[in-house]
Amino acid sequence: MLKLSEIQKNSIAGSVVMFTASFMTGFLLADTKIGGVASFADISAAGALGLPSATAILTGSIIHSIFMRSVGKNIIKISSLILIMIIKLFSETKKDPRLCGFTTAMSIIASGAAVSAIIGEVFYKLIFYIIYGIIAGIGAFSLSTVIQGLNNRFVADFTSVRGYSYAVVYTLSIAALCTIELPLINLGAITGIFITLIASYRYGCSGGALCGSLAACGAFLASEEIGMAVVLLPVSGIITGYADNRKHTTSAMIFLAVSFMLTVLSGASSDSIDTMLNLLLGALLFSASAPYFSDRLIKTETDVNSGTLALMDKRMKFLSDSVRDVRRQYAKLSDILSSDSDVNNNINGICKEVCTGCHRRLACWKNESGKTSDGFRKVSVMSEISEEKFPYELEECLHKPEIIRLLEKTSHENAVTRLIEMRFSESRKLLLELIKIIEEVIGKAGHQPELRFSDETARKVRNKLEKFNINPNSVTACYNSSERLLIELYFSGSEHSEEVIRVCDLVSDELHIPLAASEPVNSGEEVRIRLFEHPKYALEVYGVSMSAENNGQNGDTSHVFGDGTGISYIVLSDGMGSGKAAALESGMVVKLFRRLINSGIDYKSAVKLINSVMFAKSGNEAFATLDAARIDLDTGELTIIKSGASATLIRHDGGIMKVSSSSFPIGIYERSEIFTGSYAFEEGDIIIMLSDGISENEYKFIRELLLQGDDLKLIVDEIYAKSTVFKHDSHDDDVTVIGIKLNKIN
Asked: What three-state secondary structure class fits 575?
């Protein structure tokens, strides 16, 4: 979304509009009054805005003063504007709201002090201008704070201190607009009525009461007469707020009816006609624009239930820590169980059986204990045992044949035990790895995403679907960090999995926003459908594949999918060898990866889980590579994920980057080897993903193709055709080439 700062900086038309608006501000407010004194709204605006806008305000004020012959009366205002402009020539004050407020206040105080000294009323006038300057400084600070927030994300943030700034700017804006004299109508009153109606419709009684009260305050600042005309606006806002679930036209009619009745009851006069005209124009403006209003650009405290999210985050972290403690305790126990004490156990067992009844026992184990112990240790580790090979330490032993028999017996038993222990050790390692993965998944699940929830949008979606007998169990609507709408719908069973297009069309029609839908995801007894606003970019994907045997089954599997949040994945897996078995392995890897990602699991944790499944599923050698490109279609951010996969080529900024890794394929070891890397990826950039059926001899040729043209299909087809030349020179394997190009959506 285009920011205000970008419009000012990059657009000539935007600059012209900004200069014209600033000029009209200075021109129209030059002789107006707020609270019985000269309006400071134009001075506050000049203090908050940049040098071009401040210059435009000064120009408008001077021209109006000359035209109306009121230069002398506006000398303080003009001199304050000149001081502000001079300060802005040497310092970019608009970047700091506090500095904007301070310079605005000091400019007024300095100008007032100078004029007061000239006319000889220093004490009285100076006190007045100090107070006047402080109020104008607060106005400049508030406006600058609002502008800073809009420049950062172009979202009106009504939370914390910015909420107060918006209140100040709104009140002063109403006051300034009320002072502009036009026949029959009052711009300030119309604006206050319009915003009060919007607030009542969107946020109920509280919104109507707040905006109505602020509008009335602004009107009273302008003049008592105008203030009395809208003094009952908060009451009308409160009553209209009770109709927040009705159509916007109904809300407008209720507002008009309540306002007309209150006006008549308070005593009709000649001014009541003007008041009713303002009410009618404000209501008409609301009726015309309400269908297109969205909370996309408004952030309030109710958008995010921070308490609930914080509690969820705390509970998830606690659970993650608990799982980590379990893993650590299990690891300690596993180490203890895995300690090797077989040798000592064997020696003790043999000595107990052979030496207990021997009359030389005391001589061997008391007088020559060290020599005897060394002899038994040597015997216990010998691969072949016979009397001729007995160690010299046991030459005088009377039970050599019996020792040989016992050692042969225990050697066989130990081999079986070691085999069983090895199996148990592998199982313990696998279990530890799974516990670690679960710990990571739980920890990341508790992480609070940068989302802004919209209860209003969720309510509108539910109401729309229920009108067409589509009853979701749950509806959640939110805006992501790029301020794009995301909607999650949960239904019972799979009855609505075939109605994705219909659901998407109905919601798009209701919200007046073109939406796309991700594929339905089933989990237990529910199915989830994600709707998302079209992102900034779209992918062009083209791929070709060939089996090792022309008529055989391809062992490579690829898939393109989105997670419904603006993230797209292109996945390629190469099963070991070729044929049916390889196809089953690669197909399982791709299917599991897609399912885990769509379930909300982080891609790193997903790869680790898949590795554990592939490692444990069979005693036979079975593994497959994983090569994935993760692309954020809002920002263009590219993440390459590899586990034993071939190199990937990226064309970016006129150059070619080769991304490779030394990681192992999935399913070889119980602990997964994952390579991830983030790379720049912009409009027009191309990614080439390859299976290991493509020889590295082709990389030079691929580089030349990527640098010479933009036709993705032609590039991929040329690589595929060239691969058949090198295929027999390397090894007989399946061949897959996938090209990805990033295009901007107009």
From this structure: strand
